[in-house]
Sequence to fold (215 residues):
Amino acid sequence: MDGFGTLDIYKDREMAEAGLPYKEKVRQLLRASVAPETRRAYASRLKCFFAWCETEGVSTAFPTSPEVLAAYVASLADNGAAPATVEQTLAAIAAAHRAEGIPSSTETLLVKKTLKGYRREHGTAPRKKDAATIEVVRMLLAATARDDSPKNIRDAAIISLGFAGAFRRSELSALDIKDLKWTVRNDEEVLIINVLRSKTDQEGQGLVNCLLKHI
Fold:
């Protein structure tokens, strides 16, 4: 089964058999219900799981038994997978089961205990990168100031905007010129940035961020 199909709640054949219209629109909306990054991550985890099943001679048909999932968690542990990877894998498998309309063994005591044991052995604290300080940002901007090439001008703008607004990479890359507007407030030039969608705003309600010119 493909990475997208396992995340769809209804199959094409079920829509067709029911004689309902807007089949393609339903599929589009179902796909939009899950963030693209999550879909790609789940598809990747499922692909690895199915490959492991085939290597071990285990059926890839759902439902997956608790014993198989516990064994897979153990195999991930042997290969040094991070706890976050294991948890995302189980989340992907659970989502695939929900898509098929069947219970997932990820909620069974055996799988939960196996995962708990893995957490106790390997810990669950994520490895986060240190945030950039103003000194680091100044060094980066100094590097872009060596010449006024379009690339360096673009990089300087991205670095400055990202740091001042504390934007994520996805938020920066999604910005368009129409999302930026200069105005004056209390005799200060202010840049108004309309963030149409972010990780914390999956439904696209929008967020307005205001930055002073001389930050």
